[in-house]
Write a structure and sequence with these properties.
The structure is a homodimer. Chain A contains six helices and three strands. By secondary structure, chain A is mostly helical. The first copy, chain A, has one domain: Arc Repressor Mutant, subunit A, CATH 1.10.10. The first copy, chain A, has a three-stranded antiparallel beta sheet with strand order 1-3-2. In chain A, a hairpin with a 7-residue loop joins strand 2 and strand 3. In chain A, helix 1 packs antiparallel against helix 5, helix 2 crosses helix 4 and helix 2 packs across helix 5. The first copy, chain A, binds a DNA duplex through helix 4.
Chain lengths: 177, 177
DNA sequence: GAGATTATGTCAGTACTATTGACGTAATTT
DNA sequence: AAATTACGTCAATAGTACTGACATAATCTC
């Protein structure tokens, strides 16, 4: 700002760079990578009249069968009103079933059906293929490094919910790290 | 339960695993990581009445000052109708200015103002901090590995648009397609 | 047992981002 | 002169999210 008041609306012609110590490279790569990563299942979902929200629900119901509605809301960090529409559609189309909780009959445990399991796999397949391709020349060490990086990008409070190892959340002590 | 025809809607009680050769660990980590990564700027954007779309436009206008509307549409992969509202708001609030293209007067070159530059930096700061924290114990080699992984996750056709290195896209040496 | 709390469902209204399709205008190309 | 291109805009629709309010049944607490 060499001028005082007149350059408020002046165009800046120089590109922003890593000057300010900001990691634009990874910020941008993350955007492109995630966009393309989600575009694969989006194609399939369109055939069912589903969207990404359905994918996420289906994913977690398959990863943690028997989780309750409240647990699902907590994992997804959305409101029950947002979940309602999506979950209802998945139930109506026989991808997910609800069972009354055995201990607490107010709870609804969510389980995939064979149909829901199959769709979850179909949606995950191209994503997994993409990951495999991206890691194709890499060994186990590189893979672990990518996993650690992604995990470290998650808010610390939420890391407990994730379990890279075995997808079992039923209160097991699976100490991988 | 062990019926054949009637178990179409039966609950599957076992968790999906990496059995089928599907990389659920990274699929899930990518979801959580990206969600939290975008949540940082979302907080700031809310103060301006902006959303993520504004962030993306602001980001690329700062990264490639002088890019045209068509180029921006191509990078973002959205329609001009989607861009219109967002871009108009950024222009109306003096974050972005349009200049008539020097060679082709139909074109509108987009530039950030000082205000737009400042906001772009403010939005990128927490994201960059998060990345730095995630890589804190890592060296340059690990950083490069993460960059390579993310780049490999992007659709090959689009990798040309990205430039990890220096963020300079100023040379309009691009073939027009 | 009465009352409070919890788990879930649902209705209504709103916001943001995206889409397709159509049409208009000015500038450039053929 | 005609066609094409770059951009802008109007209208309608979809998908995902939000807040707030209210209902019901089950469980917990005193």
């Amino acid at each position: 700002m060499t001028d005082k008041s007149s350059d408020a609306g002046k165009p800046i012609r120089t590109a922003i760079t890593s000057e300010d110590g900001i990691d634009f490279a990874i910020i941008e790569l993350f955007f492109f990578a995630y966009r393309d990563f989600t575009s694969d299942p989006d194609q399939i979902l369109a055939d069912y009249g589903f969207g990404r929200a359905h994918h996420r629900v289906l994913h977690f119901v398959n990863r943690r069968p028997g989780l309750t509605v409240a647990e699902l809301l907590d994992v997804l960090k959305i409101t029950k009103q947002s979940l309602a529409r999506v979950l209802k559609q998945l139930i109506d189309t026989d991808h997910v079933v609800q069972l009354q909780g055995p201990r607490d009959r107010r709870q609804r445990e969510l389980y995939p059906t064979a149909k829901g399991r199959a769709l979850a796999l179909a949606l995950a397949r191209p994503q997994s293929r993409r990951i495999r391709a991206a890691l194709e020349d890499s060994g186990a060490a590189e893979r672990t490094l990518v996993e650690r990086f992604l995990e470290a990008m998650v808010n610390p409070e939420l890391r407990a919910q994730i379990d890279v190892g075995s997808a079992k959340m039923s209160g097991k002590s699976h100490g991988e790290h």
